[in-house]
Design goal:
A five-stranded parallel beta sheet has the order 2-1-3-4-5, sandwiched between helices. Strand 3, helix 4 and strand 4 form a beta-alpha-beta unit. It has a single domain, classed as Rossmann fold (3-Layer(aba) Sandwich), CATH 3.40.50.9100. The protein has 146 residues and is of the alpha/beta class. Helix 3 runs parallel beside helix 4. Helix content is 38%, strand content 18%. The protein is built from five helices and five strands.
């Protein structure tokens, strides 16, 4: 199985940006943790981060056929990007939405996810563990649909 993790804007600042909200781990630390977990389950994991909505849309479109799942932390684009939602639907990819924080317990403008409608499911609020849980969700979904 092959999984693409896509990370949206400002996630490159993890570890320095509001650690009281997002934690002290850097994105590279999370990637290492997820890669190790993937190796234990014979899953190839690839990561990409961009601060640009169009680049994320292109990555989603290009993932079709190359990856079994896209696990997407769209960050602020979660709440604004119809383009990302349309890319998931249009490309026909199996996507799982993840977030470090519980978006439903945050500011009102962060409580709505536009991309959720196009995703298999959503995981949020478990810090860096949301990434592991996202990978586990893909593994379980893949087994259930084999």
């Amino acid at each position: 199985m092959k999984v693409l993790f896509l990370n949206g804007p400002n996630l490159n600042l993890l570890g320095q940006r509001e650690p009281e909200i997002y934690g002290s781990m850097k994105l590279s630390d999370i990637e290492d943790m997820v890669r190790e977990h993937g190796e234990r389950h014979d899953v190839e994991v690839v990561f990409h981060q961009s601060n640009h909505e169009g680049e994320l849309v292109t990555q989603v479109q290009q993932s079709a056929g190359d990856y079994d799942y896209v696990i997407l932390n769209a960050a602020a684009y979660t709440h604004t990007s119809i383009a990302l939602k349309d890319a998931i639907v249009g490309a026909g990819v199996k996507a799982i939405e993840i977030h470090l924080t519980n978006i439903h317990a945050r500011e009102s403008y962060r409580q709505t996810s536009i991309i959720a409608q196009a995703c298999i499911g959503s995981i949020n609020g478990f810090g860096a563990g949301s990434y592991i849980l996202g990978l586990e969700a893909a593994i379980l979904h893949n087994k259930a649909n084999d």
